[in-house]
Write a structure and sequence with these properties.
6-stranded mixed β-sheet, P-loop_NTPase, ABC transporter transmembrane region fold, Rossmann fold, binds adenosine-5'-triphosphate, ATP-binding, membrane
């Protein structure tokens, strides 16, 4: 927290405390005024109390307004700062530890916890402590033993009860968080899987499971609400007992009626800011869990380490040399990190043993204008190799050099400016078709856009739909083939010195895929390209074909050589030829 925030927070605390003190003063002055007035003294004897009562009444409103204004100002600023830091923590590619929904909840709910920490916990607790202190001082001046009773009551209601509610909330959240996560999963299944559930008549069963999850959560929440209500009732009981004890003590000590009234009413009012602390204690448990989750996102290490001082980007033309590269993915994490954080003690467990290397000693050279095709069965490590080239994963060993410069010495953004292209899961944004393309070329003119669209064989659709057609989130309003071609057009528009293409013909029908591959092999002529593909037709045009299996290069060469060698390539080629007949 910087100095200005600290200052704003101090003002908010002071305003809150002043409002509570004014409330206390108002009751003390009013109690004195009423009881003294009953004794019918001359009016002059009451004038100070009358003015004080008015001043306290006005002051209470003004200070409360000031507290709300400054308190919310400081809390909203703190929340905005937390959100900004979270965004910044998310910018560098990370190991995928949190899913989209989980991150969204951290972004929205957990950052609100920062606001609640200040507005609902820290400010009220400080103001309540100051008001309590003032009430005790008033008590000490009138009847010290009553002040002691007041201290005891305030400590029970303001410290013991909130500590109890915080502990209970921690225990309850350990039971409620998994129930809530289970319900969220059931609802997500119902929403996203509605078409499949309807197709197989499984809707009723899924609904019954969701209802059971609702019931389980509701039952836990009802029990938690009972504990909450008991705690609040306990606070009010302590308040009543304290006031009764003070009145009794005052009467036993023979205190006059004016002082007794002041003592009793001051004690009553001193509890006002203290009683909500039981609810604040309960909220505090959730807030601490949210802050832990935020820290967890902030502490997620970036997927790759940036150099302390980045080397300058080598000038084109570029030669990329991959030498004995080994890439191993981090073990997958069991369950939602969110739930794990809520349970606090349940550490996120890696599933299974250490992962086998996804890329295991691959060497490959891309000279300017050379086209290399990477083929291999699913899970062979093709996309992982592309991810290593784009600096999205850190290799375990081996090197990638561009014109002799190790990519680890370059800023990862600079590496991606040199080597990038079509990724395996392209994302289509909820905006117009042309804006989706311009993502890869904000400066591109209309002719460049049209050329990229032509090269990706997207012309017909663009003509039909129009450049301003609004596309749905994640490309939900476009077909799989259109989505793939749009992403390809993006890559072609960006036109990096080394073009990486991950299965460009994926999700297209045979004819469209053949046509796209033929065009692609045309447009990549003389472009340095690394092409991951499952289709072998046309690969006789590329300079080298590398066959990967279980992360290792098992065959490499030209199409004509590979179709004569027994192995994955020849088998795939034969089955492709057979299906084309
Ligand atoms: N983010 C990840 N975390 C952990 N393991 C991963 C991750 N991504 C891929 N893997 C694993 O690494 C191995 C190689 O995966 P990769 O996606 O590179 O294969 P691929 O050859 O591109 O497969 P496909 O042709 O199906 O796309 C697989 O065993 C896969 O399960």
């Amino acid at each position: 927290m910087n100095r200005r925030m600290g200052l704003r927070l101090t003002w908010a605390v002071l305003a809150g405390a002043a409002a509570d003190l004014a409330g206390l003063g108002l009751i003390a002055a009013a109690a004195w005024l009423i009881t003294r007035a009953a004794e019918q003294p001359p009016l002059a004897a009451l004038s100070v109390a009358i003015v004080a009562t008015r001043a306290f009444a006005t002051g209470k409103g003004v200070f409360r307004y000031a507290e709300r204004l400054t308190g919310h100002d400081v809390a909203l600023r703190a929340q905005a700062g937390t959100r900004e830091r979270l965004y910044q923590a998310l910018i560098p590619p990370q190991r995928p530890r949190h899913g989209g929904a989980d991150l969204l909840s951290r972004m929205v709910d957990d950052t609100e916890a920062v606001q609640d920490l200040l507005v609902r916990c820290l400010l009220p607790a400080t103001a309540a402590a100051l008001a309590g202190l003032a009430a005790v001082v008033i008590g000490l001046t009138l009847l010290p033993v009553a002040a002691l009773v007041l201290v005891a009551g305030l400590v029970v209601a303001g410290v013991a009860l909130p500590a109890g509610t915080a502990a209970a909330a921690r225990r309850w959240s350990a039971r409620i968080a998994p129930a809530r996560a289970a319900l969220a999963e059931r609802v997500a299944d119902l929403v996203h899987g509605s078409a499949d559930l309807a197709a197989y008549g499984a809707g009723d069963r899924a609904l019954a499971r969701a209802r059971a999850a609702v019931e389980a959560l509701a039952s836990l929440e009802r029990r938690q609400a009972r504990v909450h209500a008991l705690a609040l009732a306990g606070g009010t009981l302590v308040q009543g007992l304290t006031v009764a004890a003070i009145v009794l003590l005052a009467q036993t000590a023979g205190t006059d009626s004016v002082a007794t009234a002041v003592l009793a009413l001051t004690a009553l009012v001193a509890f006002e800011p203290v009683l909500p602390l039981a609810a604040a204690g309960e909220r505090l448990a959730g807030i601490m869990a949210a802050l832990r989750r935020l820290r967890d996102v902030g502490s997620t290490p970036p997927a790759v380490t940036e150099p302390a001082t980045a080397s300058p980007t080598p000038p084109s033309p570029l030669t990329v040399e991959i030498d004995d590269l080994v890439v191993r993915h981090a073990p997958r994490v069991l369950g939602s990190a969110d739930v794990a954080a809520d349970l606090a003690d349940v550490a996120a467990e890696p599933v299974g043993g250490p992962e086998r290397a996804a890329v295991d000693g691959v060497s490959l050279t891309l000279t300017p204008g050379k086209r290399v095709a990477l083929v291999g069965p699913s899970g062979a490590g093709k996309s992982t190799l592309l991810a290593a080239l784009m600096r999205l994963v850190e290799p375990e060993s081996g090197t990638i050099r561009v014109n002799g410069v190790d990519v680890r010495g370059l800023a990862s953004d600079d590496v991606r400016a040199m080597m990038t292209g079509l990724t395996q899961d392209p994302y289509i944004f909820q905006t117009t078709l042309s804006a989706n393309l311009r993502l890869a070329g904000p400066e591109a003119d209309d002719e460049e856009l049209r050329q990229a669209v032509r090269e990706a064989r997207l012309e017909e659709w663009v003509e039909r739909a129009g450049w301003d057609a609004e596309l749905g989130e994640d490309g939900r309003t476009v077909s799989g083939g259109q989505l793939q071609r749009l992403a390809l057009a993006r890559a072609l528009l960006y036109d990096p010195p080394v073009l990486l293409l991950d299965e460009p013909a994926e999700a297209l029908d045979e004819e469209a895929a053949d046509a796209l591959m033929a065009d692609l092999l045309d447009v990549t002529h003389d472009r340095t390209t690394l092409l991951v593909t499952h289709r072998l037709k046309g690969l006789e045009q590329v300079d080298e074909i590398v066959v990967l299996e279980e992360g290792r290069v098992v065959q490499r060469g030209h199409h004509d050589e590979l179709v004569t060698e027994p192995g994955y390539y020849r088998d795939l080629w034969e089955s492709e030829v057979l299906t084309r007949r």
